[in-house]
Amino acid sequence: MGKEKGCGYNADVKKYYRDLMEKCKVHMDSIEKELPEPWEDFNSLLRERGLSRRDFIKWTSVTTAALMLPPIFRPMVARAAENFSRIPVVWLQFAECTGCSEALLRTSYPNIDEILLDTISLEYHETLMAAAGDQAEQNLEKCMKDFAGKFICVIEGAIPLGLDGKYLTLGPKGKTGVEIAKEVTSKAAAVICMGSCAAFGNVPAAKPNPTNAHSVGEAIGITTVNLAGCPPNPANFVGTLLHYIMFGGLPPVDSLGRPIWAYGKAIHDFCERRAHFDAGEFVKEWGDDGAKKGWCLYEVGCKGPQTSANCSRIRFNDGVSWPVMAGHGCIGCTEPKFWDAFAFLEKPIDDKAIAGGERTMDKVGAVLLG
Length: 370
Ligand code: FSX
Ligand code: SF4
Ligand code: F3S
Known about the structure:
single chain, Cytochrome-c3 Hydrogenase, Chain A, domain 2, 2 domains, two-stranded antiparallel ribbon, 9 strands, about 45% helix, disordered C terminus, binds ligand FSX, binds iron/sulfur cluster, binds FE3-S4 cluster
């Protein structure tokens, strides 16, 4: 009986992935038919930057696994990468520090994620485009007309609602951020919030929030995919866009709109200091013996147990390092209202004080150890 059930389950799984593969082929065929040819040949770009086909194949394996897909999807991930620059992207910036764009742009040496980001078809990006004033606005209007329902709208920054939105106006006609966001997102195929300001309000919405800033979802009442982080990891943007290219939709998300493949686990689960946490070996103050030995930073305020993200797995700056590796605890920048809720960055906090409050099991573990 058990065996029969098992067989049924395996058959269901196989069918699920066969159907998913079919969906993937149909969507990529339609992208290749309907959207402009890539403006840069991806394979020549790889060669120019000194990366081999072998490097690319290795990358497809890692990325397929990171997106929680079985290995049969590797050729599809490769095809999606080759089609990366077909997807038109409109990138809006509201109340923020531009750190999210900086995180995408500042890289020390090329890896495949960065090469993909270099090929992205950015139809509108205030910091990067050469056009200004009327010309910039015309470009945006043209893109919304030519690619209606086909472009991805990426939003960086929170949206101020105070004074009828007039704390933030943009362009030659002085439109408010909230007006622009409503207009552009209504024509987009999907909306990605890049960073915790767009996703959750974050720094611009921190107390006392004088401009009445809100997340994009709250400000204009739409559903967004939230790539949380201050700034978010560029690899999470690449993975989310690849998923869109393959399946025509954005990836499954948690209750806070964050893709599960990237934000489904706590920082703490894959931290290199975790063995010290489990052994009760904690840094008590900066520069003490424990700090020199690389012990756990929980008692000096690390919020890794309460924070969902993949920083400890994929790291930043081409995989070189991440906050805890650099010696400071995680400050929970992928969590809602972390600026207020996780304040006292160098002291542990009570789980009940946390807006999301989803990570109580780890706290229980810590209490037991204590
Ligand atoms: Fe916010 Fe991004 Fe932090 Fe800054 O634009 S998520 S303040 S890194 O730049 O929005
Ligand atoms: Fe790592 Fe912080 Fe967890 Fe300690 S509390 S194991 S430093 S994530
Ligand atoms: Fe942010 Fe913590 Fe990662 S502070 S960058 S979520 S390690």
